[in-house]
Amino acid sequence: xxxxxxxxxxxxxxxxxxxxxxxxxxxxxxxxxxxxxxxxxxxxxxxxxxxxxxxxxxxxxxxxxxxxxxxxxxxxxxxxxxxxxxxxxxxxxxxxxxxxxxxxxxxxxxxxxxxxxxxxxxxxxxxxxxxxxxxxxxxxxxxxxxxxxxxxxxxxxxxxxxxxxxxxxxxxxxxxxxxxxxxxxxxxxxxxxxxxxxxxxxxxxxxxxxxxxxxxxxxxxxxxxxxxxxxxxxxxxxxxxxxxxxxxxxxxxxxxxxxxxxxxxxxxxxxxxxxxxxxxxxxxxxxxxxxxxxxxxxxxxxxxxxxxxxxxxxxxxxxxxxxxxxxxxxxxxxxxxxxxxxxxxxxxxxxxxxxxxxxxxx
Length: 362
Prior knowledge:
Blueprint: H1 11-18, H2 22-30, H3 37-50, H4 57-64, E1 69-75, H5 78-83, H6 85-100, E2 104-110, H7 117-123, E3 129-132, H8 142-148, E4 153-155, E5 165-168, H9 171-184, E6 190-194, E7 204-205, H10 208-212, H11 217-230, E8 243-245, H12 251-262, E9 272-275, H13 278-290, E10 300-302, E11 318-320, H14 323-338, E12 346-347, E13 351-353
Parallel strand pairs: 1-2, 1-3, 3-4, 4-5, 5-12, 6-8, 6-9, 9-10
Antiparallel strand pairs: 7-8, 11-13
């Protein structure tokens, strides 16, 4: 037979053992009040003897009306988020502010293709707020569930729902800025390596119709920004082979996509590739080197994110969206939501960072 569960030691029991009032014991234990050092020592000794580790967090949360937990919904597997240095930088910035609130972070993976499965985990968890911090689909069934529970929501532009406060990004405008940079260097035959357009995307050529029907707004808007500059140039992008989507925005898939564009006769080869993430851009650089092409002499390459790439000897030309600062700003907006306010939607600042991977057409 199992032993009966021992009751949790209480602060009142500690106070009685130390010979002080419960309020004095509370101040002594927390270190937040003017209590004599010998009294503090006596209270802590009594707490240690009784096995009292501190206030019951559940009871504390009930008194405050908060659970002390913020859910962060991540599209797809958590493994992919942890492999993406930009995603990690955003989560790190967010966690810095959550530490100050204070609140804990609960990562909730939302399976691609079956997003409703995450509702089961959400429904079983007491949450003060939920953050959709990484690229996700325009629509999400979890939004209705969370709104019905009155849980504040913060997003990065998706899901596209007025019930969510957003720190968005001008993906289209930022990509246009990248395109204008390449255009100023004389590039006209330019190709585009995209993040997934849909949850079931496979790495391969994509069409303009695929872009128009994209499930993910970030991918679609960056592609539209690219087409704003090069769509009417009469070069590679006018053919399906000039637009390549990937199944996962990582280095390996970026390299596979790049080979489709680069392993062709020179007359058909683009002089530049615009990749929708820095990791995809690194895949393009890897594929180019494996094919004997020099970056940037034979091929210019741009990325998007502005992450640290310590293994890369050069400096990637990219859009820096300041991941850590973005996470901290999301944290401050979240703090306002937790205080009962509704901050205005905002747009994250981006900067064009010109590196060593772009050069004039040779």
